[in-house]
Amino acid sequence: MRNAPTRIDPTQLEPVREFWARPIGxxxxxxxxxxxxxxxxxxxxxxxxxxxxxxxxxxxxxxxxVRGIPxxxxxxxxxxxxxxxxxxxxxxxxxxxxxxxxxxxxxxRAEVESKHVxx
Length: 119
Description:
alpha+beta, three-stranded antiparallel beta sheet, 4 helices, 3 strands, globular
C-alpha cells in the first residue's frame, strides 16, 4: 500500500469500466485523467509490457528508470491479446497507486456488458 495519499479516487470505477471496454483508443476526459496519474508514477520499478513475439505475445517487465538500461523481464503471465496485456498493467499500476484491489476481470467485463455502454 502507498504511503502518500492517492491521486485517484478508488471508489470511482467508471473510468476503469471504460478502460476494460476499450483499453486502446480514444478515451473520456475522466479516463485520460486516471491514465495520466498512472503513467506519471516514478519510472524506476514501474511495470511495463515487453513484446515477446511481435504483434502476437507480450510479457511483463519493470522499468529501470535509467536511460539506456532496458526493462528487466519478470515472471508473470504471457498475453496473446494486447488488450488483455494492457488491462493487466492497468490493474498493477492502479493497485500500486491506490492501494486498492480492482474487481476481477470477469466481474468488470460483466458490468461493461450488462450496461451495454459504448465508450
